[in-house]
Each structure stands twice: as C-alpha cells, then as structure tokens.
Amino acid sequence: MDLPRTPSFDLDGRRALVTGGTSGIGLGCAVALAQAGAHVTLAARRADVLDACVSAIKAEGWAADAAVFDQSDTGAMPDLFSTPYDIVVNSAGLARHSAAVDTVPEDYDAVMDLNVRGAYFLSMHAARALMAAGKPGSIIHISSQMGHVGGIDRAVYCASKHAVEGMVKAMAVEWGKANIRINTVCPTFIRTPLTQSTFDNPERLAWIMDKIKLPRVGEVADIMGAVAFLASDASAMVTGTAMMIDGGWTAD
C-alpha cells in the first residue's frame, strides 16, 4: 500500500521577514520561523533592540539578521524587498483605544496608517518582488479576533483589522495563480508586556475570561505554531483565510 505522507514543516533554505519582530507576538513569530530552519530578518525601528534579538536567536544556533525599518514609511519598502522573501510576517501594529464618541482624528489616522496602509503596501511590495523572481511565497498578517467581532472602546482598532481581513481575501484572489499565498492569524488577548495592563484590570480580565471558552488567556507560544504552519508546505492549499487563535471567542 502506498501511504500518503505529511507535507514538510521544514523551512530550510527559505528567507523570512518579520516586521514588528522585536517583542511579543512578532518575536515569537521570528523564533518559530528560525527554529524551523528559515533565515529570518527582523525588521523594526530600534537598532539596539533589533541587535539584541538577533544575537539571542543566533545564540540558539539559528540564522537571523536585522533591518531597521518603519512600516509607516512606504517609501522604504522597495529597498527592503530588493530581493524577495519566501515568507513575510507582518506583526507590526498599533492600538489606541477609546470610546467611539471620543475618537480623535490623530488616533484614527495613526492606527489606520500602520495597521491598514502599512500592511497593504508591505503585502504589495512582497508580492511584487516574488512575482518578479517567479517564486512562490507565503504572506502572513497578524490580525486579530477583533477583525471578526466588535469590542468595547475598540472601534478604530476593529475597523483597521476588519479592513485587513478584506484586503487579504482580495489579494489572495489576485495572487493565487502566481502561487503566492496570503492569510491572517487572528489571536485573542495574548499575554505580553504590552497587554499586561489589560490583564491587571479586574473588569477587563473578567470580560476576557467570559468570552474565551477555554480556561486561560492566550500566550505567545499559541501563535508560533500557526505561523510556522502557514509559512510551510503543510499549508500549501491555504490562502485567503483567517486562522482563529481565539480560544473560542468567535464561536458564538
């Protein structure tokens, strides 16, 4: 009997870019890809933090380098993609929470500029470089469960992530014939230094635990396997979709 074989999760020989790769989910994504064999370029604004993260990854015996990069600066993107990346993970993002009736234009513009405009043109340049080289690729956006539901004091953030979900579907339709896949990962609340103040708020924590069906909040490690899967040949037939890592938040 000729048994089927599981596609490989191995990323040896592939170049990966992770934006927002120096902390929290972004750093977790970079580690997951490096551990699977990819050469990972971490991209963020602060050179000192980038260097520390790259050194830590290399100390594990994995391959990594750094690119100082501000994702809101779309003019810098052509240089970043002067050679194509097989895998691009966009983990750069911004949230400024307030009641919808209290939203100020400055906060709206800042969130949309990075979360939507930056994500759009990052995807465009990543795909354009792959097409020019005649290569397949996988583009992964760290979106949010808030791209599928609403949330208190999160109207602007929800709007930005709903936009990313629609953008990804349209791009998947356009780029599929070039064998360029694009998907989102949609986490629930993940415990990181940036979110710790939310977990320290008893009312917010009670709201979160009421919505999550599993008996805990999310951890960075919960995202890492999903990103490694979407980057690898194991997900070769997956594009234009959202992988919910939300503990069942959106199940009802």
In short:
This protein is of the alpha/beta class and 252 residues long. The chain has helices at 24-35, 47-59, 77-80, 105-133, 155-175, 196-199, 202-211, 220-231; strands at residues 15-19, 39-44, 64-68, 87-90, 137-142, 180-187, 190-191, 218-219, 242-245.
Which features characterize this protein?
42% helix, 8 helices, 252 residues, 7-stranded parallel sheet, alpha/beta
Layout of SSEs?
Elements: E1 15-19, H1 24-35, E2 39-44, H2 47-59, E3 64-68, H3 77-80, E4 87-90, H4 105-133, E5 137-142, H5 155-175, E6 180-187, E7 190-191, H6 196-199, H7 202-211, E8 218-219, H8 220-231, E9 242-245
Parallel strand pairs: 1-2, 1-4, 2-3, 4-5, 5-6, 6-9, 7-8
Helix pairs in contact: 1-8, 4-5
Note the run of SSEs as H and E.
EHEHEHEHEHEEHHEHE
The best one-word shape is: globular
Could you name the CATH class? Answer: Alpha Beta
Number of strands: 9
Which class do the helix and strand fractions yield? alpha/beta
> Largest beta sheet, briefly?
7 strands, parallel
Approximately how much beta-strand content do the residues carry? 15-25%
Tell me the CATH superfamily. NAD(P)-binding Rossmann-like Domain
CATH fold name: Rossmann fold
In the CATH hierarchy, the architecture is 3-Layer(aba) Sandwich
Q: In angstroms, what separates the terminal alpha carbons?
A: 43 Å
* Arrangement of strands in the largest sheet: 3-2-1-4-5-6-9
Radius of gyration: 18 Å
Helix content: 40-55%
